[in-house]
Amino acid sequence: MNKQASLPKQVKIVEVGPRDGLQNEKENVPADVKIELVNRLASAGFQNIEAASFVSPKWVPQMATSRDVMDAIVRKPGVIYSALTPNMQGFEAALAARADEVVIFGSASEAFSQKNINCSIAESIARFEGVAKAAKDNGLRLRGSISCAFGCPYQGEVPLDAVADVVGRMRDLGCDEIDIADTIGVATPRQTQAVMERAAAAFRLDGLSGHFHDTYGQALANIYASMEVGIAIFHSSVSGLGGCPYAKGATGNVATEDVLYMMQGLGVATGIDLDIVVDAGQFISQFLGRKGASRAGNAIAAKRAN
Amino acid sequence: MNKQASLPKQVKIVEVGPRDGLQNEKENVPADVKIELVNRLASAGFQNIEAASFVSPKWVPQMATSRDVMDAIVRKPGVIYSALTPNMQGFEAALAARADEVVIFGSASEAFSQKNINCSIAESIARFEGVAKAAKDNGLRLRGSISCAFGCPYQGEVPLDAVADVVGRMRDLGCDEIDIADTIGVATPRQTQAVMERAAAAFRLDGLSGHFHDTYGQALANIYASMEVGIAIFHSSVSGLGGCPYAKGATGNVATEDVLYMMQGLGVATGIDLDIVVDAGQFISQFLGRKGASRAGNAIAAKRAN
């Protein structure tokens, strides 16, 4: 028998359903539903909730209500409410909306960067210098999110060095936390470990987070594998929001309920009440008029109904 | 960084969709569809396919066509076609149908055994003595399947000693392979490792297999964790057959496509062509009139369609 790697004793789960999740849902979700969702999630015990995105509503209509949401949610002391900020205009909006953390972003894939924002990775990150400085000046937390760190829809493989390079750039901008994201959900466990280890050579291990999508069903295995190399922050989305599981090319975030169920079984502390999360998942799934995409959530709900 | 446990270089995937999977589907599947499914799976490269169950058709109407299926499939040399045999009558039927392997079964949960077959675990396994001897006498492979090894719907926790005890009884009956099954899909990775390590104290490590259901979304993480302790045989079901993902209390087997995708990524050899499995999954899902439950299968099919 092999000796097992030890796991972190506790992890932080960043709930990204209200932003990364809902942003990718086709149906328009009104502000009051989002507010209720965020409040339910805060009451479940999340320390960090991605609640808003101050991008142009022309690009992302679903996020047009971000200010309304941030204004109306019941702020729970100690909870970090995050907002995506693509530029200084977005930063000013996030500041006005009293975001606790702003999120800047870049890709580890040169092809993805060129195709999506028509500039190099290096240029795209340099553009965030103003936002990063303003965040620091205003005492806001700064998070950097790196997409396509495990694979790219355009170029396929993404070199480990490219990931490390972007991590270094995010670090140099002063990020407090850096997300290593599998945007298209293609990673497998040993690859995950290799990428995380390479990222950890460029940034504090306890400041790195894993953001996995369940496109190929690998997300939970990748989270477990990440923990084996010491990663202790993970993103997840209540009820697997973000890409309908019944639609072509579904690319939902890993479901929070599945992650919490695993953490419970592993004896890893999260500080989050799974039952309240299951309720929140039922709430938003009912609004969207479909069964949730969390297997644990559905199993727990079915058990309750019996 | 922790030192990682090494993984097996190759694994055997036992495709259980045509039996364990379809048996739990409500819709009646005619023999010709099953035959086509088994033939497609054999052509994909599986070494072992669970194709039939010689139980009373009164109990399991879906399996009433088992003889027709076994008679009509194209036997691919080297492939082991397995059949469940609850008793000597079932064994005789399996022998007549030219099964290569017969499967006997018991539970690791005393409560489950009493509730389902009204006798103790020990008694239930002793009843298989005749089948076990007949299998040996006729040169058939003998597999023992242990249900509820990670949890029970009636008694909850299942002691490690109870698993080890049943493994020992199956071993003493002469089993060539013993399945450690998470019938209700409740296991998490470290528990999985603890159960597998305990089972391996009672039987050859290379004769143990992991049989996981994805009820709580944990199956793939559990398979990965099992590999870390040296398990190299896994059961899976094409397209996640066995319990509709859209129904209450869904309890499908882990999807073969998701397992194969992970193995490919891990560089672990299976000898199986994932593309042919995806086709087989589309074939049976179309027959059942629903989207398959394999995330990798759906993602690959969507990618092809683009």
What does this protein look like?
The structure is a homodimer of 306-residue chains. Chain A is an alpha/beta fold. Chain A has one domain: Alpha-Beta Barrel (TIM Barrel), CATH 3.20.20.70. Chain A contains 13 helices and eight strands. In chain A, strands 1-2-3-4-5-6-7-8 form an eight-stranded parallel beta barrel, surrounded by nine helices. Chain A is globular. At the A-B interface, helix 9, helix 10, helix 11 and helix 13 of A face helix 9, helix 10, helix 11 and helix 13 of B. Chains A, B: Belongs to the HMG-CoA lyase family. Chains A, B: Pathway: Metabolic intermediate metabolism; (S)-3-hydroxy-3-methylglutaryl-CoA degradation; acetoacetate from (S)-3-hydroxy-3-methylglutaryl-CoA: step 1/1. Chains A, B: This is hydroxymethylglutaryl-CoA lyase.
Provide a quick synopsis of the model.
Chain A has 306 residues and is α/β, with parallel strands linked by helices. The first copy, chain A, is built from 13 helices and eight strands.
Labels describing this entry:
homodimer, 13 helices, TIM Barrel, 43% helix, 306 residues, eight-stranded parallel barrel
| Overall SS class of chain A | alpha/beta
Distance between the termini of chain A: 40 Å
Strand order of the largest sheet of chain A: 1-2-3-4-5-6-7-8
Name the helicity range of chain A.
40-55%
What is the average of the pLDDT values of chain A? 94
* Low-confidence regions of chain A: none
Q: Which descriptor suits the 3D outline of chain A?
A: globular
Q: Looking at this structure, what is the CATH superfamily of chain A?
A: Aldolase class I
**Quaternary state of the chains:** homodimer
The total of helices of chain A stands at 13
Largest interface: A-B, 52 and 53 residues
Domain Pyruvate carboxyltransferase (chains A, B): 11-278
Enzyme class (chains A, B): lyase
Pathway (chains A, B): Metabolic intermediate metabolism; (S)-3-hydroxy-3-methylglutaryl-CoA degradation; acetoacetate from (S)-3-hydroxy-3-methylglutaryl-CoA: step 1/1
Family (chains A, B): Belongs to the HMG-CoA lyase family.
